[in-house]
Amino acid sequence: MSKLTVDHVFTSESVSEGHPDKVCDIISDSILDACIKLDPKSRVACETFVSTNFVGNAGEITCSGWDKIDPEKIVRQVVKDIGYDKAEYEFCADTFEYMCRIHGQSPHIAMGVDSSSEREQGAGDQGMMFGYATTSTPELMPAPILFSHRLLDRLQQVRKSKEIAYLRPDSKSQVSVRHVKGRPVEITSVVISHQTDEVSADIIRKDMIDVVKDTLSHTGLLNDKTEYFINPTGKFVIGGPHGDAGLTGRKIIVDTYGGVGSHGGGAFSGKDSSKVDRSAAYYARYAAKNIVAAGLAEKCEIQVAYAIGVAKPLSINVSTFGTAKVDEAKIQQMLESEEIFCFRPASLIRELGLLNPQGWKYRDTAAYGHFGRDMFPWEKTDRADDLRRVIVI
Question: What pLDDT sits at residue 4?
Answer without folding.
Answer: 46
